[in-house]
User: Fold this.
Amino acid sequence: IQTLHLKHKQWYQRRVRGNREVLVSLVPSQFQQSFRALLEGLWVILHVYSSDPDPDRYVDVNVFKMECLDLYHLILENFGNRPDHRWVNLSPTLHSVLAHSWELIEANNCQSLGAFSESGLECNNKFLRIIREVKARKINEIVCHEDTLNRMWDKSCPLASTYRPIVHPRPAARRHHSDSLSERIAACYIV
Assistant:
């Protein structure tokens, strides 16, 4: 779950959140209301369990568990157990998120699991690939690895980093979700 939760959250934020109604319109009409509820439930669950932990705010595990189990039952009742319309298989990843993420949050002292994200490591892989493809000599493998290691060493050097230009990040995009989703997210926390 630790590796996959960030990927699910990023995929959902980039692809689904802005196009929720477009996705709902692609589903057969008898499933549209349930599918809309599925997308909203996924948004709430992924937001709560993959957010960064806050020492002043704890996840109400009982409320979060009910959100997960309600969504689990919604999937099984509306998409999985109907012999005439059985077109959804519950993947092991989705099962682990819906059935067991609340256990991980409870074991983590009722804190969200965003601190266990591997995005920092994955970001380094991106830099390594760019350095290897663009800024390293390609005479042979040893020279390429030498150049890559030297570039990474320069990147981690505190003295060298003082000479790098400061890049100001763009302001974060404003999240647009309905008040009912905000209330469901807030209900999962104990302040």
Observations:
- The two ends are 25 Å apart (CA to CA).
- Residues 61-80 form the longest helix (20 residues).
- The mean pLDDT is 77.
- Strands lie at 58-59, 189-190.
